[in-house]
User: Fold ABC transporter related from Halorhabdus utahensis.
Amino acid sequence: MPPIQTSELTKYYGDVRGVEDLSFAVEEGEVFGFLGPNGAGKTTTIRTLMGFQSPTGGTATVLGADIRDGAALREVRADVGYLPSEPSFNENVTGRRLLDYHGSLRGDIRSDEMLELFDPPLDRKVREYSRGNKQMLAIVMAFMHDPDVLIMDEPTSGLDPLKQEQLLEFIRTEQQRGKTFFFSSHILSEVRKVCDRVAIIRDGHLVELEDVESLLDRSGKIVRARLSGDLDPDALALDGVHDIEVSSDGSEDGDEGDGETAIAKSEATSVTFTYTGAYEPMLRQLLEYEIFDLTIEEAPLEDVFMRFYGENPAERVEAVENGKPVDSEIEEGAEEADV
Ligand SMILES: Nc1ncnc2c1ncn2[C@@H]1O[C@H](COP(=O)(O)OP(=O)(O)OP(=O)(O)O)[C@@H](O)[C@H]1O
Assistant:
């Protein structure tokens, strides 16, 4: 049985939809990213999985324990690490005291090791902690009992770039030790770095679930070329060419450059497009011109996600869940409320 599995998981707060009909499984040893814009339902899902609130419909299991069964959940707690989105602690005691207490409840197998990587000032009272210090303390608590499954809500939030990188590196190492991760994020670069698969949630619905590599493959490459002479966009009307933009150099580019550039500018055309086909026919086509510059790079993950996140429904790809299109005309009002 997968360590985390949800089945039509639904949570409403009164009339406000948190999440609806979420069905997915997180496989053992995978790093599973859970992405979505503000108010999409990430924290709702995580808190429901942790048993802090009851689902309105459907259910889920964590290490086989039904989240509606408090006793079963308590039994698996020792094997689950949890990092909340905004860790809050008793502010009047020291970090060390909190770690000791947490250790007495869940066990302490590796706090010393964790504290070498994430080092909040343990002898100070938590009320003196910065946001980043609190996050580090929470990270140590999430891992110190060496759980098999980690459920984390925006784990890098509040950390400086170095610590963010350290945490991602740590996640990769832990994955190699067989740990399973489920974490929410807005940060695409971190998803790219560590996740095997991502689920994208919007307006409480799952709109995509795919491995990161396939998402990127599907989104194609961005080709940018600067070519000699005038270019007829139709000349590049190949299968797989999308969103082509052509401009003659100098019209948009305010850079004066040196003499050489100025000559090239007057004779050059810049072309940018997204390409999802095989390289050869596209390159043959470009070679009809003299090529001054050519770059081919992976489409940014941002572009891929904007297709799912886009505010304008017409920009979104068709949302599909369980083979059925999901209604994208759902009311937006609920997104305004604070968590
Ligand atoms: N305790 C609550 N009472 C009422 N509505 C809530 C509550 N918690 C969340 N919601 C609503 O549920 C929806 C999902 O919120 P949730 O916090 O799960 O989103 P999120 O994806 O975690 O957002 P963010 O990225 O901003 O943290 C939102 O419309 C939110 O306003």
